[in-house]
Write the structure tokens for this entry.
Amino acid sequence: MHVLITGGAGFIGSHLAAHHLAAGDQVYVVDNLSTGTLANLEAFRGHPAFRFTEADILHWSGLGQAVAWADRIYHMAAVVGVKKVLEDPVAVIATNMTGTERILRAIHSGGWNPEVIIASTSEVYGFNEKNAFAETDHIVLPSAGRLRWTYAVTKLADEFLAFSYARKYGLHVVVVRLFNTIGPNQVGHYGMVVPSFVRQAVRNEPLTVYGDGEQTRSFCDVRDTVVALDRLAGCPEAWGEVVNVGNDQEISIRGLAELIVQRARSNSSLEFISYADAYGEEFEDVTHRRPQLNKLKALTGFTPEWTLPDTLDDLIERARAKNLRVA
Ligand code: UDP
């Protein structure tokens, strides 16, 4: 199979590339290296079935050809991370919306009908107070323009673009709402909590818990995520559908910090930082976020294999090795 991955030098994209190379597929990655890195591709850059182009999805002249070559496309190119979104909402809108429309139009013009995954996010559920989100739930967003929600709104627009192209032109598109993905190569610079806490713990520095730490998240190992995405793309019943992808094990951020300190046998303390200090006054955090996974299971039979402690042990070991190399 020919697999095209936009944003393929990013954290999830590079795991998708590794997954498909291991399965014997041809993999073509395009990435503008804004948040993705060549280091993420290091393990397989010389692989004969692997190809990489540095280009921005908004201007890439090779898009039409690449799309016509592909049997499977993962559209992962996006501006992500709360900090990045607050810094540059204009770039978020351009990349996340114009980029997605461009790729869908190119697929339609290509005349070939590849399987397509469009990456959306659990952020689209917004302030919904339910304790576990199902795909049919309402979306609750503040109506006054808070920039923090730019990411959610652009991804929601992407979802509707995808459904429109699926309905009008019969494209084989699956929209996936990803819930807090974690794993090797994820970095903390853009606000992601697990890599930040792990790094702090192995250095015996305080773990920076934002707010009171009672907010909860459900973390899914990326090595599970890529299996779910692979199965969904190849599942005709999923085409034209939106599906939650994640793990429903839930933990508070304070609980996560304590667990990481314990697993790392670290001397770190917890440092509580107000949201205003962490992100600026405008920030509104989501208090609970857990996926309902019935739809994913019904369509693909998928259940995650990695438990949170197993992933954390793996990440702690990797961070320790890196720390030793840097020191
Ligand atoms: N968070 C934290 N300390 C950090 C980074 C994040 O306490 O150093 C919190 C953040 O406020 C949120 C949770 O951890 O409540 C998850 O944050 P992340 O940015 O990883 O994902 P998202 O907010 O998109 O769920």
